[in-house]
Amino acid sequence: MSEVKRGYVRPLDIRHGRIDLSHGSGGRAMAQLIEELFAAAFDNEFLRQGNDGATLPVPAGGRLVMAADAHVVSPLFFPGGDIGCLSVHGTINDVAVMGAKPLWLSASFILEEGFPLADLKRIVESMASAAKDAGVPIVTGDTKVVEQGKGDGVFITTTGVGVVPDGRELSGDRARPGDAILVSGTLGDHGMAIMAERESLGFSAPIESDTAALHGLIEALLASGADVRVLRDPTRGGLATTLNEIARQSKVGMMLQEKSLPVNPEVAAACEFLGLDPLYVANEGKLVVIVAPEDAEQALAALRAHPLGARAAAVGTVHEDPHHFVQMTTAFGGKRIVDWLTGEQLPRIC
Amino acid sequence: MSEVKRGYVRPLDIRHGRIDLSHGSGGRAMAQLIEELFAAAFDNEFLRQGNDGATLPVPAGGRLVMAADAHVVSPLFFPGGDIGCLSVHGTINDVAVMGAKPLWLSASFILEEGFPLADLKRIVESMASAAKDAGVPIVTGDTKVVEQGKGDGVFITTTGVGVVPDGRELSGDRARPGDAILVSGTLGDHGMAIMAERESLGFSAPIESDTAALHGLIEALLASGADVRVLRDPTRGGLATTLNEIARQSKVGMMLQEKSLPVNPEVAAACEFLGLDPLYVANEGKLVVIVAPEDAEQALAALRAHPLGARAAAVGTVHEDPHHFVQMTTAFGGKRIVDWLTGEQLPRIC
User: Fold this and answer.
1) What span, in angstroms and rounded, lies between the C-alpha atoms of B115 and A50?
2) pLDDT (mean) for A38-58
3) What pLDDT does B26 receive?
4) Could B54 and A65 be called an inter-chain contact, meaning their C-beta atoms sit closer than 8 Å?
5) A vs B: CB pairs below 8 A
6) Over 90: is that where the pLDDT of B342 sits?
7) Residue among A30, A72, A163 minimizing CB distance to B146
8) What class has domain A21-164?
9) CB-CB under 8 Å, B28 with A340
10) Which CATH superfamily includes the segment(s) B180-337?
């Protein structure tokens, strides 16, 4: 993003203006949009370099982590958040679950012609605020515009880079029989916030998305000294899909206890109403932790001591299983297979 | 991208299949798409880690560079390339013009429901081939699907990370009065290839896009020892817009010589037919070089010795100008201002 000063151009009319194709042309209108909206909100020393990319210091030691997420959530605004903060949290979390300290983000926007500048400003300010709160600056980016009917308001793709300290090994293939499975809080809040908004369910208290940056919670967990094997954020496909991925990667089976799964009552009610299972509903501020059995209590205590982990719970255990099944002991004492998500339950949830 | 082996699922029907919403759900269909299409084509040691992000070695010394590009080009396939190779070249070039060796790419896909898998495969293979030729692996990514009519086939956002050796300083604010302005070849090929395809101009020989990765050309140029001040790839908005950006950042004026500007005759003819100026038309495999006057010949020779710089030319000079104007001595000996691109000349060119 390049900074351009043109005192003789009228400032953007944020209140009434709309995105048009010239905002993606590479010319004067694009420079103005970048300067007055993006650069103003995201301002930091790297973005201020004003080149096609950002120059950044090489971390001293460790390994780099790189993760990317496209965000196409619909609606763009929902109780508890919007596509802006979600696009910051989502990628920070993908970097953080690798055990890395997130350092920088890139942000690319695909805007639809006719999109109100006021909405874009609200989204950009939400991103800026999320990035600032997380201490992870947006250092470079891009803006494209597509014709009306060829996009849907705004899509935001973020890529994050972070650094893992030497000696820290977290990976989806490290779960071992006997390990405990923890979750950092209630399941399904994000997905049901979106669905309730989309279906205009109109509960008396709206369900709020749990969208949050998890790197602080993860640092607190790892600082406890617990032998954490795997961290994941159970987004699309929910806890069920995330555990199936880990079971497959680690070549193990898992057994969940249904009665241990934390679910907010209003989420449970909305799921029942819509015929959905909270195990498959997306979270955007929750952590799955696979931890050595002897350290489970210690890990749980560390999670619960952090504001984002107050409702953390031990929800199951890892065992040997040549089929790599995830199963669940139901509230009635029976057993069932918790399979991969099949088909499309909740499109455009993130 | 996680690798999943499921022998009991039928392989994707690439020939007749289409993207549906389940391919973006986070569940089994998405895992299959990633495994059979993306992971198979992009295969490398980092992607094979199978986690939410890639773990990468920290470069020894230098500074990191990070650059991002969203690609929304229409049509998706055009003479000389497609959105796949373009999305690799575009971001590699943004990293390389900072003087950096490009190391890794992330790739995020926003797919429209109903998009043919055969077209997606062609695009993914073009990306894979471009990444392999450039020696820059795609190490992580994401896939989202939007409903029919809410996207346009496929949008691809890539982010690149590279490393600049210590002591190498290239930036848009380093042009100085007296410096020479070089371009590495003919102007406007990419933009006119897209426009000719879109307008079905049907020239006897189709205009081919110049899409190419420029890091090899840049290394050859810098290895010549010439004191290069600024490098840029003149994409959206063309040479005119890129030079205006540099003039503004460096607080200088520039004078171009119209008769020195290399333009392919068929591009010149198509521009004339459509009322476009090649100075404002996008390039995707060309370099603007601002170089110390005493090193201009040496830099030009280095560019011309490389296959991508065979038609390199000196096209103007930098001078003092408190207004930071870019001007041009026309073929008829007059002078005109070469202003920023205003309005939208060529939507969705990249």
Assistant:
1) 37
2) 93
3) 83
4) yes
5) 299
6) no
7) A72
8) alpha beta
9) yes
10) PurM-like C-terminal domain (3.90.650.10)
